[in-house]
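Inputs:
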Amino acid sequence: MSLKYAVLAALLEGEASGYELSKIFDVSLANFWPATPQQLYRELERLAGDGLIAARTVPQERRPTKRLFSLTEAGREQLGVFAAEPTRRPTAVRDEFLIKMQAMDGVDPAAVRALLEERRAWALGKLARYERVRERLLDGRTEEEHLREADRVGPYLTLAAGITFERENARWCERVLTVLDGRRAPMGPAGQPLG
Amino acid sequence: MSLKYAVLAALLEGEASGYELSKIFDVSLANFWPATPQQLYRELERLAGDGLIAARTVPQERRPTKRLFSLTEAGREQLGVFAAEPTRRPTAVRDEFLIKMQAMDGVDPAAVRALLEERRAWALGKLARYERVRERLLDGRTEEEHLREADRVGPYLTLAAGITFERENARWCERVLTVLDGRRAPMGPAGQPLG
DNA sequence: CACACCTATTCAAATAGTTCAGTAATAGCG
DNA sequence: CGCTATTACTGAACTATTTGAATAGGTGTG
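Outputs:
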């Protein structure tokens, strides 16, 4: 349903091939609407069939031929209508890791710690990638300047949401690691370790 | 895939019917693994078939007969194995609203503001419900006491993650509303409104 | 020069998730 | 008494998503 509009929104940045889109989805849109390359190619086919995007074939010198897609007026219009409508579906988070954490209290603490460290590292890695995208978007301007003056602020603001999300993810892991420390070595009433 | 383990993790709290599980998923597990009642009933059937949960039929006086499910030893064990394994799938967020926000810069600002207000109200409502679950979990203890001494801390910690998530959601909406204000009435170099 | 990885796309099959509808009984409201 | 809501569950059809594999040339590394 919404993949359609996610693709149209991605094409607001300009013409792109299926492959390029799959990269864009990887680094920024995956934040709120993940999609595999296969999904994208199918959706692009459908959107082109419906006249919401236009395709042109570009033969390349030393690369396979690619097809570049761009928004049509009809596509831009449908996206505008969608974006002004009330949101139908609430946010859905699917996180296998948090299922494991829900069940953590029956599991070897060392294994839990390993999971937490891994997740934390992953969140910090994603954060670093987001920060690079952010620098590119700001392009030398300060955040305030950009938010006041840029033509488009949507991409920056959704990216900021992703940055907060990953930062809080990392912080959560750190907090849980601290909690586990406190449970491994319980404290007496005066704060000194027991046992 | 993971719905299986989400159901097993939910049954760590004790015996429950499909209907009761659907309520549990609504208020707390939906935070990281949403599931409709239909999905749950199907999954419970499968888990019972595989011997990971045990079902018993409980005829009721003034209600339809219900089936109560509880973890078997096999189920508890498989959940333990799953929870100690490295996480396969990264977090997937699907958020129609953020697609709209990505495309906000071509849309009537009044409509965007309405979406933001709606989302903010929704996040604050969810936050309030989470806080009530939190009070129930703490049951008079302070957070520190609970995290040090409780038998299980998993449910509290995943709930805390949900609380942070919704709080940041609401804050994001407030920030974007402020940004939109700044763009409606751009400031001059000395900080006074222009026009 | 072998090997892995990148660009660029397509096809088929399997799994997961959503939607709509329905059954059936009780409770509470005006 | 009719209306709506709640408890409790089932079935079928549909849509969306994931996975695996295949094709095919190019680029970089040791």
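Remarks. The helical segments of chain B are 3-10, 18-27, 37-49, 73-84, 96-102, 109-138, 143-149, 154-184. The mean pLDDT of chain B is 92.
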